[in-house]
Design a protein that fits this description.
This protein is an alpha/beta fold. Helices cover 42% and strands 15% of the residues. It has one domain: Aldolase class I (TIM Barrel, Alpha-Beta Barrel). The protein contains twelve helices and eight strands. An eight-stranded parallel β-barrel has the order 1-2-3-4-5-6-7-8, surrounded by seven helices. Keywords: Lyase, Metal-binding.
Amino acid sequence: MRVEIVDVGPRDGLQNEEKTLPPEIRAGLCDRLAAAGVPRVEAASFVNPKRVPQMAGAEEVIAGLNRREGTSYAGLVLNEKGYERAVAAGVDEVRYAFPLTDEFARRNQNTTVEEAAALAGRLAGRAREDGVRFSVTLSVAFGCPFEGEVRPERVLEVAGQVAGASPDEVVLADTIGVGVPTQVRALVQELSEIAPEETAVGCHFHDTRNTGIANAVAAVESGATVLDASVGGTGGCPFAPRATGNIATEDLVYTLHGMGYETGIDLDALIEVAGWLSEQLGKELPGRVHKAGAFAPVSG
């Protein structure tokens, strides 16, 4: 079985870093990930640079890519203006994200869950007309820093509404890293049952409480075919207190290959990318495999 990995390092991985990397370096990171065989790269965030200065110059990042055949370059958006910027910049896919609680939605996007879900439907229609891939990420699907636990029934209610618009993908995001494998299995299984056949189910995990890789395995075993990860384990959310990095792409690839899944990614090349990014940021990154190295029998 093949698992499609989306490396969100150039966007989610860098948006919370103290050191802001210029657009040309972020484009270079995307190029290195593509050369390592990463099939989808979240290259830029089309958000207000005043709120997230680390993501300024999104159009410059896209323009600076050395596009590689077989790699899809995505842009994250939070509203319709962001969608229009992303499409105009020439992304291959748009990834629209919104939270599943009103308090987080208000703080992060100045909207409500109901309004954001309705926008997802409209953007899905526009994406079909524009010929770009479109996915919807449901943030804080396992817990919210402001409202606490998010009921599974609520997650599935909104996810079902979004899936009804037939986006290419619906992603459940554990934004603050509170989920555990039993929760993941239950939600992924139920979402897989209600999503249209043409809509893939994906997951996005943060490793805040050291459950990220276990959750990713549970997701794949329960029907998810797409997983987000960030090279080196970088990441965090500026609007989610105490949220730490994403699961490291190299750690995830090592695990999946060892379990017999295919990703199409060259693990050794990916480890080199993590080392390069560590140098660019001037600090040690939290991922483990790029420090320990790969183990010869693991291949994929």
